[in-house]
Write the structure tokens for this entry.
Amino acid sequence: MDRQAYVENIVDHYEHPRNKGRMDDADVQLGGGNPGCGDLITIYAKIGDDDRIEAISFEGEGCTISQAGGSIVTELARGRSLEEIAAMGLEEITDEMGEEIVRSRVRCATLALGTLQAAVDQFRRDRERREAGLPPIERKPFEV
Ligand code: FES
């Protein structure tokens, strides 16, 4: 894709977001933000017995790139295992947004991915603690 195609892809995800909306019965939900600008993303996910993302959605408010990121990342994540989510990196975002945009707006471009990975972390930690009979630890929003 050339720069124009990447821009069009981002705008399309921003204007027609996939998987946008609150999920009331999520197994995990976590907010993320960029304190520099106040932009926000919340990720919701249901996780199956096979440790794969069964359903995922996001809500948020902010710049075009961060909100397009919510749409892109939730599309990429569905059906993946928690291990696979933890291993996701900048390359996959770059494939969708283009290197130039990701490089110049890295915090915007990684807000949703970082929030998703923190949510998965949170889910695993809570589960380990539950299995060990310990109370959950306090949830901290993810920050880029
Ligand atoms: Fe705030 Fe993009 S300007 S995340």
